[in-house]
Amino acid sequence: MSVPIRALYDANVLYPNTLRELMIRLAQAGLAQGRWTDRILEEMARAIARTRPDVPSSKLDTLRDRMNAAVRDCGVYDYEPLIEGLKLPDPDDRHVLAAAIACRADVIVTFNLSDFPAELLDQWGIEAWSPDDFLIDLVDRDAKRVWGCVQRIADSRRKPPETAEEVLAQLERSGLIESVAMLRTG
To answer: Measured between alpha carbons, how far is residue 172 from residues 21, 96, 119, 132, 160 in Å?
Structure first.
């Protein structure tokens, strides 16, 4: 078994429900060391609240607590002093890079690749990958374990019950096109 990839998950990867659940399950399965900060979780919660005003803030608090409890050593702390010295196209994303540096992440998993240019990340030995590229890498490493994570998501869905194919379709709608195709054919 290979060493799990150290991955800092950006808020936009933790926002879609099924994708968030997959990122957590990949970490639980030891395929990745999934990491995030309280600030990233706050951004995720604000995005959910914007699109789902029917979700009470108490449920969002519970979601954050459950996420932190679900993944061992997921929290990144004491990264704030690094923020001011970093340069990125969007200064509001510096906290993400600072956290990635602090936890010695291999990759930042994000949909906003243009906000994390390689020429600015190279000096830290960090790459920015889309969730699709991240999952492709994990499927290449251990397709059976990745498939097991998808199956566990399907098995956990009760109201209404879902199949693994329905979970894959949700991931595909979230932008995981190539990796879902690999899982379907693999």
So the answer is: 14, 25, 29, 9, 19
Instruction: Find the mean pLDDT for residues 18-24.
Output: 98
DSSP 142-165: HHHHHHHHHHHHHHH-BTTB--HH
Q: Are residues 76 and 37 in contact, defined by beta-carbon separation less than 8 angstroms?
A: yes
What average pLDDT does the structure give for the chain?
96
Q: Do residues 111 and 93 touch, judged by C-beta distance below 8 A?
A: no
Q: How far apart are CA 115 and CA 128, in angstroms?
A: 9
Find the largest Cα–Cα distance for the chain.
48
Distance from C-alpha of 48 to C-alpha of 55, rounded to nearest angstrom:
8
Helices (H), 73-176: 80-83, 94-102, 118-121, 131-156, 164-173
Q: Which of 38, 37, 7, 39 is nearest to 23 (CA)?
A: 7
Q: Which residues pair with 17 in a beta bridge?
A: none
Among the CATH numbers 3.30.460, 3.40.50, 3.30.70, 2.20.25, which is that of 5-185? 3.40.50
pTM exceeding the 0.90 threshold for the entire prediction: yes
Show the CA angle centred on residue 111, arms to residues 108 and 113, nearest 5°.
Answer: 65
